[in-house]
Amino acid sequence: xxxxxxxxxxxxxxxxxxxxxxxxxxxxxxxxxxxxxxxxxxxxxxxxxxxxxxxxxxxxxxxxxxxxxxxxxxxxxxxxxxxxxxxxxxxxxxxxxxxxxxxxxxxxxxxxxxxxxxxxxxxxxxxxxxxxxxxxxxxxxxxxxxxxxxxxxxxxxxxxxxxxxxxxxxxxxxxxxxxxxxxxxxxxxxxxxxxxxxxxxxxxxxxxxxxxxxxxxxxxxxxxxxxxxxxxxxxxxxxxxxxxxxxxxxxxxxxxxxxxxxxxxxxxxxxxxxxxxxxxxxxxxxxxxxxxxxxxxxxxxxxxxxxxxxxxxxxxxxxxxxxxxxxxxxxxxxxxxxxxxxxxxxxxxxxxxxxxxxxxxxxxxxxxxxxxxxxxxxxxxxxxxxxxxxxxxxxxxxxxxxxxxxxxxxxxxxxxxxxxxxxxxxxxxxxxxxxxxxxxxxxxxxxxxxxxxxxxxxxxxxxxxxxxxxxxx
Length: 473
Ligand code: UDP
Fold this sequence. Notes:
Shape: globular
Largest sheet: 8 strands, mixed
Strand order of the largest sheet: 1-4-3-2-5-6-9-10
Radius of gyration: 22 Å
CATH topology of the largest domain: Rossmann fold
CATH architecture of the largest domain: 3-Layer(aba) Sandwich
Bound molecules: uridine-5'-diphosphate
Strand content: 15-25%
């Protein structure tokens, strides 16, 4: 077990353990939460594995927290040894096998807990279901960190219980979600296990373990805010356990890097490029599909043609592990108005940039929140997990986005260049785009307020800390 202690555990009256799942999309919001807890004079210890240590350290910035690494030597068929985060998996289909095997860390985790000063509470990712057992052994209240919206989690649960209790099959046709008659979904809105005919599979088993551990925990933390989805917050609180606490949007807990003229040379070239586009104010489409989506070469090609034909300015982040665009003249042809980036970017910095006017996104929940907070409307193109439901929420409920046109007409799937070009233009130049842009600015104001003094998410986190730690923090 490795450690780097830069905190002042003994000087702070209460101590919290944070344990994010090993995916960037899960680590990032928990690190924002860490900042809020430190502001409330709590000492924080973050558990992770060695391969994720550097990413966490970098994000600690000026704040103090301790990091403890647990060894994670798994033995999962098809996953090479040494892979410690989901972004590195050879295929996203191995996600649940990987998540399931995190239990190998349990005994080391418990040994480490014994060495720590009194832990007031633990915030552990929903996927690390086994930490409930550890928390119970040490009498530590466990709060589950949930990286989904109330909307997506409630609909998934409602549909799952219909299916399990009443044997309702999900169809390719739209069906109504029982408690929300205005919401209609199809099989394509869900990942297995809820669409698997056989509920005995590994994914099903894993999901049920995570749900059961969540139910038996002290509470669940949502990276969302009550004003964004009041009906679904209310539904959750009436229908499900444990008690929910809305403390987001956590991306507002710390500002993105602010760079001024004096440090111009340190600006990444893509930010310099966005600066140059300021003269055509608010003109750039930002394109990124999160930290683990794998786009096929055929799909990359369609995106490239769609962007070229749309004639809009664009900044496109392509993951390093992704294939390359087969047309090697593409970048040259579009260089006046487009830039491709193959690095890890500060996405919030890009979204907050005044040049950015729209976001073509896979609708990972963090990306949705970051876009909402920046007041940038979304062109929704969900791929896996709960992204189709997030996309529905963005387009149909909050109305801060439009949806791409897929070939199969459903919420996700292959997109041909013509459909992409059409929707890019609609978002960037036409009336529907204007409407969702206006709504995005309004929702951004709401998001900002909720994290300010007397805002609902700020007060909720205060109440949570007071409830567990007493009022002496
Ligand atoms: N992200 C980033 N730079 C990148 C790629 C991703 O900062 O180059 C961040 C992004 O801002 C978000 C997270 O990684 O906070 C991705 O989470 P999300 O839920 O959007 O998608 P996931 O990666 O989990 O599919």
